[in-house]
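Study this fold:
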Amino acid sequence: MKIGLPGAGSSVDKIVSQAQRAEADGFCALWYTSGTLNDPLIAMALAGRATEHIELGTAIANTYACHPVLLASRAAAAVEAIGAPGRFTLGVGPSHQPFVEGMLGHTYDHPGRHTEEYLEVLAPLLRGEAVQFTGQELPLPVNASPPALLDGQPVPLLVAALGPRLLRLAGRDADGTIPWMANASAIETHIAPIITKAAADAGRPKLRIVAGLPVAVHDDEVEARSAAQVQFGMYGQLDNYARIFDRGGVAGPAEAAIVGDEVSVTQQVQELFDVGATEVWLAAFPVGDDRAASRARTRQLLVELANS
């Protein structure tokens, strides 16, 4: 199974050691949030220099926080630092209204249009193409040459798409999608059909669906879901996630999380692949008083699945 983990580390040494261990344990990828050392691309460059083949991606780089021309240049620089095209993947998305308006001071009136225009600039640059563009969200003319791409190879691009508009955009202009909190039902009935059709309509091959969910191997499902609610309940307060929970037939993050004993978790992970996910990234969370033992049990199963 192609299984990745969240990229993590509160220091340079921890970022490097986590990446080295993940690679040695057989995980296919590490996916970094914008909170890793405050800049995921720095963390990825550090991890890439210390590893040989594990994929390093963003999940996600916030589109409102960085102009697309600058982000394309930064992505190309990260690939150069890693030293191998194909190991770096740029996942982008518009994030959520509380962050964009409350912290960045941008309006969040048209996130779909914003993301479409953002990719009109970003996607060609990552393919090594020049861009001339003027839009409504990017009203000043963009006239940009592409950054230097290592070995002339395009930088893979994923979109964090949960709604129909962004899924169609991902199918048309990107290499796939990297959803978080979309369970197997949401992937089967919503995500996979929309992105697959969009790709087919654009004459493109089948794209990546990199599904991310919390996971805990624990014998008491009720206790595990209670722990999931404590640790991930915030996602239930965000409109974009509320809609994907509804499409997945669950009430919130506690029900979307993958929990159970080894047999049950294995079945739930396999179901993600059966319904259309091409890869998964799983965030292990602790349950019970012995947090270290809980994480170790979950990781042990994930290692086994990653090497199966």
User: Anything to note?
Assistant: The chain has twelve helices and twelve strands. Residues 184-201 form the longest helix (18 residues). Residues 3-306 form a domain with the TIM Barrel fold (CATH 3.20.20.30).
